[in-house]
């Protein structure tokens, strides 16, 4: 009978089997030895019948486990040779014993192959595990794993926005975005893309009569090449905007102070865009208007307003690089009853973006927006409301260091305004919906201000007003600002001087814009660039 043994250790030879009286066929000593042997060893399938009992030879030495295909073949031949040698040396081996030896040889072949396969599988698993540890930063004790932002699953309790994918893959010599630091993310956009080759927005071909083209494709491509520097700057601002809002959408939740939300967002914005005076920074204060307040509200210093579960909050913020401004907004809500209301604004903005293009009349964009917005009605707290476009709020063109560059994009149809969009222009397409009157007026304490773009020299009498104007020129110039930012810079007792600058027309105040109390307003906004060859939705992200 063939023995089954572990490769690592030899089975001790049974002295009873070696005794001469154990060789007597059918004897009592042979029967006892066979019984003892069965207790020590497993039975092999195909074992010889009763005729072979009590005629076992010495146990062959265990073969080494094979580690390769060649070893498998050697391992298969070795048991057979060992069995033949044992059979030749053993005295009084019966025919049944020879049959048992052959059965043992076949069984060993099968076992050795199984052991070899298991060894290869274990080695492969060990190797794969080592690669996984290396990839995830594992290693010797004392080394701390650094998690990239892409390894963290994004989640948000804000309704109405789509889930984000991973942060964009950096250039070969760039650094991947990482979670950490005081504001949540640590790697500025230009450290991810040192060459300035930042991801593009969504590029959409123009639709219409190709026969109206006045230039060839080659000329259009040359025009784009000439504008490549400004394109890179505005795409950098757009990528910063996407990464900031991706992080903030995972952070914002009911119970947070509005001041905390704004300050975290703005400080993260400063980090990712690498704020540097007027060369790069925040384009305007973070709007976080709640419920019936539609726009232009941000908390002043000391404000204790808290975001509630039942609030509808519009987060509207901007980023700029060398004055190239990205302006984009979305609506934050947690209660499912506001889903359709937010959807109305989101789909209306999408329709406005789709309608926009070179030589498109602004009034046609407004008509497209209104048609979608006012096709919705919503039920809130058991009452049904038609959704109305807020007719005295508009989108706008954007210029360098100028958030409102002169052209207004209506969100309702009206008249036959012949003003058209032109090649190379930058537009903020934004829509506002309301369950109230669909008309806003100025109310509440003012927080937004902006120096007039075309203002000339105006003499000032108050020394404090002159000092404040110098501060504004240095830090904001014609970009919008808020009182919190003046406080942050350490300026004190400036309200009288600020009022004086507003009274003489140097600075324009922008008070909050509100619909009737008890109503709810929503907003979505994208910045688009009308390139010669196609339209680029610069601020487009996975979320909206």
Report on this structure.
The protein has 544 residues and is of the alpha+beta class. It has 13 helices and 20 strands. The protein has helices at 15-18, 28-40, 69-89, 95-135, 189-192, 217-226, 228-251, 258-273, 339-355, 362-373, 463-475, 483-488, 495-503; strands spanning 179-180, 184-185, 202-205, 280-290, 293-295, 312-321, 324-333, 377-380, 383-386, 388-389, 395-398, 408-409, 426-434, 441-442, 448-451, 481-482, 507-510, 513-514, 521-530, 534-537. The strands form 6 sheets. Strands 3, 10, 11, 12, 13, 19 and 20 form a 7-stranded antiparallel sheet that branches. It has a 3-stranded antiparallel sheet with strand order 4-6-7. It has a 3-stranded antiparallel sheet with strand order 5-18-14, with no helix packed on it. The relative contact order is 0.10.
């Amino acid at each position: 009978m063939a023995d089954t043994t572990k490769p690592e250790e030899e089975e001790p030879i049974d002295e009873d089997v070696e005794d001469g009286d154990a060789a007597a066929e059918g004897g009592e000593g042979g029967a006892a030895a066979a019984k003892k042997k069965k207790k020590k060893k497993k039975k092999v399938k195909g074992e010889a019948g009763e005729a072979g009992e009590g005629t076992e030879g010495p146990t062959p030495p265990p073969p080494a486990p094979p580690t390769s295909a060649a070893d498998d073949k050697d391992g298969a031949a070795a048991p057979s040779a060992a069995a033949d040698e044992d059979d030749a040396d053993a005295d009084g081996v019966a025919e049944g014993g020879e049959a048992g030896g052959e059965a043992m040889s076949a069984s060993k072949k099968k076992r050795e192959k199984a052991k070899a396969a298991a060894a290869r599988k274990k080695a492969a698993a060990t190797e794969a595990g080592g690669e996984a540890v290396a990839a995830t930063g594992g290693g010797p004790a004392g080394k701390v794993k650094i998690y990239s932002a892409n390894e963290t699953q994004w989640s948000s309790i804000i309704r109405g926005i789509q889930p984000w994918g991973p942060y964009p893959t950096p250039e070969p010599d760039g650094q991947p975005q990482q979670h950490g630091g005081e504001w949540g993310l640590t790697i500025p956009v230009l450290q991810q893309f040192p060459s300035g080759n930042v991801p593009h927005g969504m590029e959409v071909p123009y639709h219409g009569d190709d026969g109206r083209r006045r230039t060839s494709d080659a000329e259009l491509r040359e025009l784009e090449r000439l504008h490549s520097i400004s394109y890179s700057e505005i795409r950098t601002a757009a990528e910063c905007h996407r990464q900031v809002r991706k992080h903030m959408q995972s952070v914002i939740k009911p119970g947070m102070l509005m001041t905390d939300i704004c300050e975290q967002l703005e400080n993260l914005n400063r980090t990712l865009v690498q704020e540097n005076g007027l060369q790069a920074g925040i384009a305007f204060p973070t709007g976080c208007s709640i419920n019936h307040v539609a726009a232009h509200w941000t908390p002043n210093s000391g404000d204790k307003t808290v975001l509630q579960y039942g609030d509808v909050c519009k987060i509207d913020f901007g980023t700029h690089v060398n004055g190239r401004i990205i302006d984009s907004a979305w609506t934050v809500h947690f209660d499912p009853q506001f889903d359709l209301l937010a959807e109305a604004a989101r789909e209306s903005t999408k329709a406005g973006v789709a309608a926009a293009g070179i030589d498109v009349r602004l009034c046609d964009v407004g008509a497209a927006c209104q048609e979608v917005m006012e096709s919705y009605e919503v039920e809130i707290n058991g009452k049904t409301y038609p959704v109305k476009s807020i007719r005295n709020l508009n989108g706008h063109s954007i210029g360098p260091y100028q958030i409102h560059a002169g052209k207004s994009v209506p969100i309702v149809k009206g008249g036959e305004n012949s003003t058209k969009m032109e090649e190379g222009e930058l537009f903020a397409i934004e829509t506002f919906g309301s369950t109230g009157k669909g008309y806003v007026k100025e109310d509440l304490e003012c927080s937004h201000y902006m120096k007039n773009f075309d203002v000339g020299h105006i003499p000032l009498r108050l020394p404090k007003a002159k000092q404040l104007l110098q501060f504004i020129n240095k830090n904001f110039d014609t970009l919008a600002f808020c009182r919190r930012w003046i406080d942050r810079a350490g300026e004190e007792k400036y309200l009288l001087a600020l009022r004086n600058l507003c009274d003489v027309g140097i600075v324009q105040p922008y008070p909050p814009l509100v619909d009737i109390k008890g109503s709810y307003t929503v907003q979505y906004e994208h910045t688009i660039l009308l390139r010669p060859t196609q339209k680029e939705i610069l601020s487009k992200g996975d979320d909206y």
